[in-house]
Design brief:
Structural class: alpha+beta
Order of helices and strands: EEEEEEH
Largest sheet: 3 strands, antiparallel
Number of domains: 1
Strand content: 25-35%
Helix content: 25-40%
Radius of gyration: 13 Å
Distance between the termini: 18 Å
Number of strands: 6
Shape: elongated
Length: 82
């Protein structure tokens, strides 16, 4: 999922185990000129859900909140593209 008006992209592909979908999120920042995607954060210990859609929706919400909370820290880091 590419965030509107942003250089961030979120990969919210859940894993399936023991009959449950485990949410996970990988957050990338896309360089505006080269379109290179740099992974800036990955979180695989998110909750589990009965359906894949629930896991994806949770991961997307979680990632967006994480980006908003940590945006200043990310853009200040070396190699980040604002």
């Amino acid at each position: 999922m590419r965030l509107p008006n942003s250089s961030f992209r979120v990969d919210s592909d859940p894993t399936f185990s023991v009959g449950r979908f485990f949410a996970q999120a990988r957050i990338f920042q896309v360089h505006p000129a080269t379109r290179e995607q740099i992974e800036i954060f990955a979180f695989i210990n998110l909750p589990d859900f009965a359906t894949e859609a629930e896991a994806i929706a949770f991961s997307n919400r979680w990632a967006i909140e994480w980006i908003h909370e940590d945006l200043l820290e990310i853009t200040a880091a070396k190699g980040a593209y604002a």
